[in-house]
Amino acid sequence: MKFEINFERVYPHPPEKVWQALTDRAALGQWLMETDFVAEAGRAFRMWCSDGAGGKDTYLCAVREIDPPTRMVWSWVLDGRQELGETLVEFRLEPVAGGTRLQVTHSGDRDPETIERFKGGWPVKVAQLAAVLDGGDAPGVAR
Amino acid sequence: MDVYHAIADPNRRRLLELLSEDAHSVQALMPHFDVTIGAVSQHLQILLNGGLVTREKQGRFRIYKAQPEALKEVHDWTERYSRFWTSRLDRLGDYLDRDRTP
Question: In this complex, do B78 and A27 lie within 8 Å of one another by their Cβ atoms?
């Protein structure tokens, strides 16, 4: 079962500057998460963020593809939930009038049998799911 | 086949709703639709491929059932990461505006 969400933003800055913010460890720490990121194809890295309960979640990631300053793909999985499989985050940059268009796609592929083992909570109504998917799926869904 | 495609069509959403309430054969679903049995079967096949329904044989009939856990998993994941990326991409914008290096 595949799923994905797409985002698109235009920032009034040149692609090189946006690329720097996506590939510099200190910059990533400022806007994304604390990380030990290294901008090199094949490199594993970690990211940390608050779990909302006083602890920290660790994400295990790797640089799958890197093509400055236009495209980068990361694999991404929450530590402790590896059995659910990796997800992929793709960043695509292109120059546009007055700045840079950044597109981010986060996608996953879950085995339904694995999901079966993580049962819990109330089933979701189809309409609820559709509303969330419509929101996450539209290009340029900004907020 | 991805879950977005599976749920994009109103007939498939209706099928999911009906199958969430109870398991049914194609024949039992037919009165709820204005389309041919072939079309309903095709929609069910798409939902099967998307992992949103399962199918099992009972005598002469194939019985379809919704997979609520699959729906919930996709819903939760999508909602969580939509919120996450929306806030982080806002922060990226703020970071870029603040950062003075060219």
Answer: no
